[in-house]
Specification:
The complex is a heterodimer of chains A (276) and B (167). Chain A contains eleven helices and 14 strands. With 276 residues, chain A is of the alpha+beta class. Chain A folds into three domains: 47 residues, Uridine Diphospho-n-acetylenolpyruvylglucosamine Reductase, domain 2; 116 residues, Uridine Diphospho-n-acetylenolpyruvylglucosamine Reductase, domain 3, CATH 3.30.465; 96 residues, Enolase-like, domain 1, CATH 3.30.390.50. The mean pLDDT of chain A is 96. In chain B, helix 2 crosses helix 5. The chains are: A alpha+beta (276), B alpha+beta (167). The site of one FE2/S2 (inorganic) cluster has 12 residues of chain B, from loops.
Protein backbone atom coordinates (compact mmCIF):
# COMPACT_ATOMS: atom_id res chain seq x y z
CA UNK A 1 0.00 0.00 0.00
CA UNK A 2 2.51 2.60 -1.15
CA UNK A 3 1.92 5.06 -3.96
CA UNK A 4 3.54 4.49 -7.35
CA UNK A 5 6.33 7.03 -8.03
CA UNK A 6 5.34 10.54 -9.10
CA UNK A 7 6.99 13.92 -9.62
CA UNK A 8 6.11 16.39 -6.91
CA UNK A 9 5.65 20.00 -7.90
CA UNK A 10 5.21 22.83 -5.39
CA UNK A 11 4.07 25.84 -7.40
CA UNK A 12 4.60 29.31 -5.94
CA UNK A 13 1.46 30.70 -7.53
CA UNK A 14 -1.83 29.68 -9.07
CA UNK A 15 -0.49 30.57 -12.52
CA UNK A 16 2.41 28.16 -12.09
CA UNK A 17 0.06 25.43 -10.94
CA UNK A 18 -2.17 25.95 -13.98
CA UNK A 19 0.83 25.96 -16.31
CA UNK A 20 1.91 22.54 -15.04
CA UNK A 21 -1.66 21.31 -15.37
CA UNK A 22 -1.86 22.63 -18.93
CA UNK A 23 1.28 20.82 -19.95
CA UNK A 24 0.61 17.56 -18.07
CA UNK A 25 -3.18 17.29 -18.35
CA UNK A 26 -4.65 13.97 -17.31
CA UNK A 27 -1.36 12.68 -15.95
CA UNK A 28 -1.37 15.34 -13.25
CA UNK A 29 -3.40 15.50 -10.07
CA UNK A 30 -3.94 18.48 -7.83
CA UNK A 31 -3.02 17.75 -4.22
CA UNK A 32 -4.86 19.99 -1.77
CA UNK A 33 -5.71 18.25 1.51
CA UNK A 34 -5.06 14.79 0.13
CA UNK A 35 -7.68 13.10 2.29
CA UNK A 36 -9.25 11.31 -0.66
CA UNK A 37 -6.45 11.46 -3.18
CA UNK A 38 -3.77 9.99 -0.91
CA UNK A 39 -5.79 6.88 -0.02
CA UNK A 40 -6.38 6.41 -3.76
CA UNK A 41 -2.64 6.80 -4.38
CA UNK A 42 -1.77 4.43 -1.54
CA UNK A 43 -4.14 1.82 -2.95
CA UNK A 44 -2.86 2.55 -6.46
CA UNK A 45 -6.34 3.26 -7.73
CA UNK A 46 -4.70 6.25 -9.40
CA UNK A 47 -1.11 6.53 -10.58
CA UNK A 48 -0.54 10.10 -11.74
CA UNK A 49 2.85 11.09 -13.16
CA UNK A 50 2.79 14.44 -11.38
CA UNK A 51 1.31 15.77 -8.16
CA UNK A 52 0.79 19.52 -7.95
CA UNK A 53 0.72 20.54 -4.29
CA UNK A 54 -1.45 23.63 -3.85
CA UNK A 55 -1.92 23.23 -0.10
CA UNK A 56 0.48 26.01 0.73
CA UNK A 57 -0.78 28.58 -1.78
CA UNK A 58 -1.90 31.37 0.54
CA UNK A 59 -3.96 33.06 -2.17
CA UNK A 60 -6.22 29.99 -2.34
CA UNK A 61 -6.58 29.62 1.41
CA UNK A 62 -9.56 31.77 2.34
CA UNK A 63 -13.19 31.69 3.44
CA UNK A 64 -15.09 34.91 2.85
CA UNK A 65 -18.52 36.33 2.31
CA UNK A 66 -18.92 38.00 -1.05
CA UNK A 67 -21.87 38.97 -3.24
CA UNK A 68 -24.36 36.83 -1.37
CA UNK A 69 -22.04 33.82 -1.38
CA UNK A 70 -19.69 32.15 1.00
CA UNK A 71 -16.66 31.63 -1.16
CA UNK A 72 -13.89 29.20 -0.31
CA UNK A 73 -10.55 28.98 -2.05
CA UNK A 74 -9.18 25.63 -3.19
CA UNK A 75 -6.78 25.36 -0.25
CA UNK A 76 -9.37 26.17 2.44
CA UNK A 77 -9.84 23.20 4.72
CA UNK A 78 -13.11 21.84 6.01
CA UNK A 79 -11.81 22.64 9.51
CA UNK A 80 -11.30 26.28 8.52
CA UNK A 81 -14.89 26.50 7.33
CA UNK A 82 -16.11 24.79 10.49
CA UNK A 83 -14.20 27.32 12.59
CA UNK A 84 -15.35 30.33 10.55
CA UNK A 85 -17.21 32.50 13.09
CA UNK A 86 -19.99 33.52 10.67
CA UNK A 87 -20.81 29.95 9.70
CA UNK A 88 -23.86 29.29 11.91
CA UNK A 89 -25.52 32.54 10.80
CA UNK A 90 -24.49 32.50 7.13
CA UNK A 91 -24.75 28.82 6.39
CA UNK A 92 -26.69 26.81 8.97
CA UNK A 93 -26.87 23.90 6.53
CA UNK A 94 -23.08 23.66 6.24
CA UNK A 95 -22.77 24.03 10.00
CA UNK A 96 -25.01 20.98 10.42
CA UNK A 97 -23.38 18.94 7.66
CA UNK A 98 -19.68 19.53 8.36
CA UNK A 99 -19.40 17.38 11.51
CA UNK A 100 -20.46 14.43 9.31
CA UNK A 101 -17.63 14.98 6.81
CA UNK A 102 -15.03 12.32 7.68
CA UNK A 103 -13.50 12.83 11.11
CA UNK A 104 -12.07 15.95 12.72
CA UNK A 105 -8.57 14.60 12.04
CA UNK A 106 -9.29 14.41 8.30
CA UNK A 107 -11.19 17.73 8.25
CA UNK A 108 -8.01 19.35 9.57
CA UNK A 109 -6.48 18.76 6.16
CA UNK A 110 -9.30 17.88 3.80
CA UNK A 111 -10.54 20.77 1.66
CA UNK A 112 -14.06 21.74 0.64
CA UNK A 113 -13.12 22.09 -3.03
CA UNK A 114 -11.35 18.73 -2.92
CA UNK A 115 -14.51 17.04 -1.74
CA UNK A 116 -16.45 18.64 -4.60
CA UNK A 117 -13.74 17.60 -7.07
CA UNK A 118 -14.02 13.94 -6.11
CA UNK A 119 -17.78 13.97 -6.46
CA UNK A 120 -18.46 10.98 -4.27
CA UNK A 121 -22.22 10.32 -4.47
CA UNK A 122 -22.48 9.97 -0.68
CA UNK A 123 -20.34 12.99 0.22
CA UNK A 124 -21.99 15.73 2.28
CA UNK A 125 -20.50 18.85 0.70
CA UNK A 126 -21.63 18.11 -2.88
CA UNK A 127 -25.09 17.46 -1.44
CA UNK A 128 -25.11 20.87 0.24
CA UNK A 129 -23.89 22.53 -2.95
CA UNK A 130 -26.71 20.85 -4.88
CA UNK A 131 -29.41 21.83 -2.41
CA UNK A 132 -28.27 25.44 -2.16
CA UNK A 133 -27.63 25.73 -5.90
CA UNK A 134 -24.07 26.84 -5.36
CA UNK A 135 -21.39 27.01 -7.99
CA UNK A 136 -17.83 26.03 -8.70
CA UNK A 137 -15.17 28.24 -10.28
CA UNK A 138 -12.99 26.36 -12.76
CA UNK A 139 -9.83 27.83 -14.14
CA UNK A 140 -7.20 26.77 -16.66
CA UNK A 141 -4.34 28.75 -18.19
CA UNK A 142 -6.67 29.68 -21.02
CA UNK A 143 -10.01 30.43 -19.40
CA UNK A 144 -12.15 30.76 -16.33
CA UNK A 145 -15.73 29.57 -16.06
CA UNK A 146 -18.33 29.33 -13.36
CA UNK A 147 -20.40 26.15 -13.32
CA UNK A 148 -23.66 25.62 -11.43
CA UNK A 149 -23.82 22.67 -9.05
CA UNK A 150 -26.35 20.84 -11.22
CA UNK A 151 -24.07 21.10 -14.27
CA UNK A 152 -20.91 20.28 -12.37
CA UNK A 153 -21.45 16.84 -10.88
CA UNK A 154 -22.24 14.51 -13.76
CA UNK A 155 -22.28 11.12 -12.09
CA UNK A 156 -20.33 8.74 -9.87
CA UNK A 157 -16.94 10.42 -9.27
CA UNK A 158 -17.42 12.37 -12.45
CA UNK A 159 -17.58 16.13 -12.98
CA UNK A 160 -17.57 18.72 -15.76
CA UNK A 161 -13.95 19.65 -14.97
CA UNK A 162 -11.65 19.37 -17.99
CA UNK A 163 -8.20 17.89 -17.46
CA UNK A 164 -6.45 21.28 -17.75
CA UNK A 165 -8.82 22.90 -15.27
CA UNK A 166 -8.66 23.24 -11.56
CA UNK A 167 -11.42 24.12 -9.10
CA UNK A 168 -10.10 27.36 -7.68
CA UNK A 169 -13.14 28.21 -5.56
CA UNK A 170 -16.55 27.02 -4.45
CA UNK A 171 -19.50 29.31 -3.72
CA UNK A 172 -22.38 28.51 -1.40
CA UNK A 173 -25.27 31.00 -1.34
CA UNK A 174 -25.66 32.74 2.02
CA UNK A 175 -28.70 31.60 4.03
CA UNK A 176 -31.90 33.48 3.23
CA UNK A 177 -33.84 35.14 6.03
CA UNK A 178 -37.06 33.33 6.91
CA UNK A 179 -35.85 30.04 5.43
CA UNK A 180 -35.27 26.88 7.43
CA UNK A 181 -32.40 24.49 6.71
CA UNK A 182 -31.86 20.96 7.95
CA UNK A 183 -29.41 18.12 7.32
CA UNK A 184 -29.53 14.51 8.49
CA UNK A 185 -27.71 11.38 7.52
CA UNK A 186 -27.58 7.71 8.32
CA UNK A 187 -24.19 6.00 8.39
CA UNK A 188 -22.96 2.81 10.02
CA UNK A 189 -20.59 4.78 12.25
CA UNK A 190 -20.15 8.48 12.74
CA UNK A 191 -17.85 9.68 9.96
CA UNK A 192 -18.51 6.75 7.64
CA UNK A 193 -19.96 7.23 4.19
CA UNK A 194 -23.66 8.02 4.31
CA UNK A 195 -26.09 5.24 3.39
CA UNK A 196 -28.44 8.12 2.72
CA UNK A 197 -28.15 11.80 3.53
CA UNK A 198 -30.89 14.40 3.21
CA UNK A 199 -30.78 18.16 3.06
CA UNK A 200 -33.86 20.34 3.07
CA UNK A 201 -34.47 24.02 2.55
CA UNK A 202 -37.91 25.33 3.60
CA UNK A 203 -38.69 28.70 2.09
CA UNK A 204 -41.95 30.56 2.64
CA UNK A 205 -43.23 29.57 -0.79
CA UNK A 206 -41.39 26.35 -1.59
CA UNK A 207 -39.68 23.30 -0.29
CA UNK A 208 -36.43 21.97 -1.75
CA UNK A 209 -35.29 18.46 -0.89
CA UNK A 210 -31.95 16.89 -1.80
CA UNK A 211 -30.74 13.31 -1.34
CA UNK A 212 -27.18 12.01 -1.31
CA UNK A 213 -25.76 8.49 -1.11
CA UNK A 214 -28.55 6.82 -3.07
CA UNK A 215 -28.27 7.82 -6.75
CA UNK A 216 -24.96 8.25 -8.58
CA UNK A 217 -24.92 11.93 -7.60
CA UNK A 218 -26.86 14.23 -5.28
CA UNK A 219 -30.39 14.83 -6.52
CA UNK A 220 -32.43 17.92 -5.59
CA UNK A 221 -36.12 18.61 -6.27
CA UNK A 222 -38.51 21.48 -5.66
CA UNK A 223 -41.97 21.12 -4.16
CA UNK A 224 -44.76 23.48 -3.12
CA UNK A 225 -44.44 24.79 0.42
CA UNK A 226 -47.78 23.43 1.59
CA UNK A 227 -46.76 19.84 0.94
CA UNK A 228 -47.75 18.04 4.10
CA UNK A 229 -49.21 14.83 5.45
CA UNK A 230 -49.90 12.21 2.80
CA UNK A 231 -48.77 14.43 -0.05
CA UNK A 232 -45.32 14.67 1.52
CA UNK A 233 -45.18 10.91 2.02
CA UNK A 234 -46.17 10.38 -1.62
CA UNK A 235 -43.60 12.88 -2.84
CA UNK A 236 -40.84 11.23 -0.82
CA UNK A 237 -41.92 7.80 -1.99
CA UNK A 238 -41.77 8.90 -5.63
CA UNK A 239 -38.40 10.50 -5.03
CA UNK A 240 -37.10 7.32 -3.36
CA UNK A 241 -38.08 5.20 -6.37
CA UNK A 242 -36.79 7.70 -8.93
CA UNK A 243 -33.29 7.55 -7.46
CA UNK A 244 -32.85 3.99 -8.74
CA UNK A 245 -31.05 2.84 -5.60
CA UNK A 246 -28.81 -0.23 -5.91
CA UNK A 247 -27.89 -2.97 -3.43
CA UNK A 248 -24.34 -2.91 -2.16
CA UNK A 249 -22.52 -4.51 0.75
CA UNK A 250 -23.59 -1.71 3.12
CA UNK A 251 -27.34 -1.68 2.49
CA UNK A 252 -30.03 -2.91 0.14
CA UNK A 253 -31.85 -0.68 -2.31
CA UNK A 254 -35.04 -1.25 -0.37
CA UNK A 255 -33.43 -0.09 2.87
CA UNK A 256 -32.14 3.04 1.15
CA UNK A 257 -35.61 3.84 -0.20
CA UNK A 258 -36.96 3.47 3.31
CA UNK A 259 -34.27 5.86 4.57
CA UNK A 260 -35.29 8.43 1.98
CA UNK A 261 -38.92 8.19 3.12
CA UNK A 262 -38.17 8.35 6.85
CA UNK A 263 -35.15 10.63 6.98
CA UNK A 264 -36.89 12.76 4.39
CA UNK A 265 -39.91 13.37 6.58
CA UNK A 266 -37.75 14.02 9.64
CA UNK A 267 -35.52 16.47 7.77
CA UNK A 268 -38.46 18.33 6.26
CA UNK A 269 -40.01 18.66 9.70
CA UNK A 270 -36.75 19.97 11.13
CA UNK A 271 -36.36 22.52 8.33
CA UNK A 272 -39.93 23.72 8.83
CA UNK A 273 -39.33 24.00 12.57
CA UNK A 274 -36.20 26.09 11.92
CA UNK A 275 -38.15 28.39 9.62
CA UNK A 276 -40.82 29.00 12.23
CA UNK B 1 9.09 26.46 -8.72
CA UNK B 2 10.45 23.42 -6.86
CA UNK B 3 9.99 20.16 -8.77
CA UNK B 4 11.09 16.87 -7.24
CA UNK B 5 11.56 14.01 -9.67
CA UNK B 6 9.93 10.65 -9.09
CA UNK B 7 12.28 8.32 -7.25
CA UNK B 8 14.77 11.05 -6.48
CA UNK B 9 15.73 11.57 -2.87
CA UNK B 10 15.50 15.03 -1.42
CA UNK B 11 16.50 16.31 1.96
CA UNK B 12 13.68 16.74 4.47
CA UNK B 13 14.08 18.60 7.69
CA UNK B 14 11.51 19.57 10.29
CA UNK B 15 11.08 19.99 14.00
CA UNK B 16 10.06 16.78 15.73
CA UNK B 17 9.01 17.17 19.35
CA UNK B 18 11.15 20.25 19.74
CA UNK B 19 14.32 19.16 18.01
CA UNK B 20 15.31 19.30 14.39
CA UNK B 21 15.43 16.02 12.51
CA UNK B 22 16.36 15.40 8.92
CA UNK B 23 16.68 12.65 6.40
CA UNK B 24 16.10 11.81 2.75
CA UNK B 25 12.88 10.83 1.06
CA UNK B 26 11.51 10.39 -2.41
CA UNK B 27 8.31 12.31 -3.14
CA UNK B 28 6.01 9.36 -2.57
CA UNK B 29 7.27 8.62 0.95
CA UNK B 30 4.52 9.00 3.54
CA UNK B 31 5.25 11.02 6.66
CA UNK B 32 4.49 7.97 8.84
CA UNK B 33 7.12 5.91 7.00
CA UNK B 34 9.63 8.73 7.10
CA UNK B 35 9.29 8.95 10.87
CA UNK B 36 9.53 5.24 11.43
CA UNK B 37 12.16 4.25 8.88
CA UNK B 38 14.30 7.35 8.36
CA UNK B 39 14.13 9.08 11.73
CA UNK B 40 13.64 5.93 13.80
CA UNK B 41 10.70 7.41 15.73
CA UNK B 42 8.50 4.34 15.93
CA UNK B 43 5.91 5.66 18.39
CA UNK B 44 3.63 6.54 15.48
CA UNK B 45 1.95 3.38 14.24
CA UNK B 46 0.67 2.46 10.80
CA UNK B 47 -2.47 0.39 10.38
CA UNK B 48 -4.59 0.92 7.31
CA UNK B 49 -2.73 3.51 5.22
CA UNK B 50 -5.95 5.05 4.02
CA UNK B 51 -6.99 7.33 6.81
CA UNK B 52 -9.50 5.09 8.52
CA UNK B 53 -7.88 3.50 11.57
CA UNK B 54 -6.29 6.56 13.12
CA UNK B 55 -3.18 4.73 14.38
CA UNK B 56 -0.86 7.12 12.53
CA UNK B 57 -2.40 10.32 13.90
CA UNK B 58 0.08 13.00 15.02
CA UNK B 59 0.09 16.78 15.22
CA UNK B 60 1.34 18.90 12.35
CA UNK B 61 1.64 22.55 13.37
CA UNK B 62 -0.67 21.71 16.25
CA UNK B 63 -3.50 20.06 14.29
CA UNK B 64 -4.18 16.32 14.58
CA UNK B 65 -3.73 14.75 11.15
CA UNK B 66 -3.18 11.36 9.53
CA UNK B 67 0.50 10.86 8.80
CA UNK B 68 -0.39 8.11 6.31
CA UNK B 69 -2.16 10.75 4.19
CA UNK B 70 0.64 13.30 4.25
CA UNK B 71 3.88 13.13 2.32
CA UNK B 72 7.19 13.67 4.07
CA UNK B 73 8.13 16.33 1.49
CA UNK B 74 5.16 18.41 2.65
CA UNK B 75 6.50 18.74 6.19
CA UNK B 76 9.74 20.60 5.46
CA UNK B 77 10.24 23.34 8.01
CA UNK B 78 7.11 22.49 9.96
CA UNK B 79 6.43 21.31 13.51
CA UNK B 80 5.56 17.69 14.08
CA UNK B 81 4.57 16.29 17.45
CA UNK B 82 4.22 12.59 18.11
CA UNK B 83 3.37 10.42 21.08
CA UNK B 84 7.04 10.51 22.10
CA UNK B 85 6.57 14.09 23.31
CA UNK B 86 3.94 13.31 25.92
CA UNK B 87 5.81 11.71 28.83
CA UNK B 88 8.48 13.66 30.72
CA UNK B 89 12.18 12.89 30.19
CA UNK B 90 12.24 10.76 33.33
CA UNK B 91 9.32 8.67 32.06
CA UNK B 92 6.59 10.34 34.13
CA UNK B 93 3.39 9.89 32.17
CA UNK B 94 1.19 12.78 31.08
CA UNK B 95 -2.14 13.05 32.89
CA UNK B 96 -3.93 11.52 29.97
CA UNK B 97 -1.44 8.69 29.66
CA UNK B 98 -1.70 7.98 33.38
CA UNK B 99 -5.50 7.96 33.15
CA UNK B 100 -5.28 5.54 30.19
CA UNK B 101 -3.20 3.22 32.33
CA UNK B 102 -5.57 3.43 35.30
CA UNK B 103 -8.70 2.77 33.25
CA UNK B 104 -7.43 -0.05 31.07
CA UNK B 105 -7.78 2.23 28.06
CA UNK B 106 -5.21 0.16 26.21
CA UNK B 107 -4.28 -3.46 25.91
CA UNK B 108 -1.97 -4.08 22.96
CA UNK B 109 -1.39 -0.34 22.60
CA UNK B 110 -1.39 -0.29 18.82
CA UNK B 111 -4.10 2.36 18.55
CA UNK B 112 -3.00 4.35 21.59
CA UNK B 113 -0.42 6.79 20.15
CA UNK B 114 -2.91 7.99 17.55
CA UNK B 115 -5.72 8.38 20.05
CA UNK B 116 -3.52 10.31 22.49
CA UNK B 117 -2.37 12.70 19.77
CA UNK B 118 -5.93 13.28 18.58
CA UNK B 119 -6.95 14.03 22.14
CA UNK B 120 -4.12 16.54 22.56
CA UNK B 121 -5.67 18.58 19.75
CA UNK B 122 -9.31 17.83 20.56
CA UNK B 123 -9.13 18.67 24.28
CA UNK B 124 -7.25 21.85 23.45
CA UNK B 125 -10.22 22.98 21.39
CA UNK B 126 -12.96 21.48 23.55
CA UNK B 127 -11.73 21.50 27.15
CA UNK B 128 -15.09 20.31 28.53
CA UNK B 129 -16.56 17.83 26.08
CA UNK B 130 -19.53 15.64 26.94
CA UNK B 131 -19.22 11.88 26.69
CA UNK B 132 -21.09 11.86 23.38
CA UNK B 133 -18.60 14.28 21.85
CA UNK B 134 -15.70 12.16 23.06
CA UNK B 135 -17.27 9.08 21.50
CA UNK B 136 -17.77 10.94 18.23
CA UNK B 137 -14.14 12.02 18.28
CA UNK B 138 -13.13 8.40 18.87
CA UNK B 139 -15.03 7.34 15.74
CA UNK B 140 -11.88 8.45 13.95
CA UNK B 141 -9.92 5.65 15.64
CA UNK B 142 -10.18 1.89 15.61
CA UNK B 143 -9.32 -0.02 18.75
CA UNK B 144 -9.74 -3.77 18.55
CA UNK B 145 -8.89 -4.51 22.18
CA UNK B 146 -10.66 -2.30 24.66
CA UNK B 147 -14.19 -1.77 23.40
CA UNK B 148 -13.55 1.97 23.91
CA UNK B 149 -15.24 2.14 27.33
CA UNK B 150 -11.96 2.43 29.21
CA UNK B 151 -10.79 5.12 26.81
CA UNK B 152 -13.96 7.13 27.34
CA UNK B 153 -13.63 6.75 31.13
CA UNK B 154 -10.02 7.88 31.06
CA UNK B 155 -10.82 10.95 28.99
CA UNK B 156 -13.83 11.89 31.09
CA UNK B 157 -11.76 11.60 34.27
CA UNK B 158 -9.11 13.95 32.94
CA UNK B 159 -11.83 16.36 31.79
CA UNK B 160 -13.47 16.29 35.24
CA UNK B 161 -10.10 16.88 36.93
CA UNK B 162 -9.35 19.89 34.76
CA UNK B 163 -12.83 21.29 35.34
CA UNK B 164 -12.41 21.08 39.10
CA UNK B 165 -9.16 22.99 38.70
CA UNK B 166 -7.22 19.99 39.82
CA UNK B 167 -4.78 20.30 36.96
S1 LIG C 1 -2.60 4.20 9.15
FE1 LIG C 1 -3.21 6.25 8.93
S2 LIG C 1 -5.29 6.16 9.46
FE2 LIG C 1 -4.75 4.07 9.45
S1 LIG D 1 -5.35 -1.30 22.60
FE1 LIG D 1 -5.16 -2.79 21.06
S2 LIG D 1 -6.08 -1.83 19.38
FE2 LIG D 1 -6.50 -0.45 20.96
Amino acid sequence: MKPAPFDFVSPDSLEEALAVLAETGEDARILAGGQTLTPMLNMRLVEPAVLIDISRLQTLDYVRRENGHIELGAAATQAALEAWPDLPACAPLLAQALPHVGHFQTRNRGTVCGSLAFADPSAELPLCLALLEGEVVLQSSARRRVVKAADFQLGMLSTARESDEMIIAARFPVAEAGTGYAFTEMALRHGDFALAAMAVMARKGSLRIAVGGVADRPVARDYPADLGGDALDDALNDLAWDLAAADDHHATARYRRELVRRLGRKTVEEALACRA
Amino acid sequence: MPRLKAGELSRISFELNGRTVSGYAEPRMLLADFLRHEVGATGTHVGCEHGVCGACTLRLDGAAIRSCLTFAVQTNGRHVETVECLAAEDGTLSRLQAAFRRHHALQCGFCTPGILMSLEDFLGRHPSPGEQEVREMLSGHLCRCTGYSGIVRAVMEVVAESESGDA
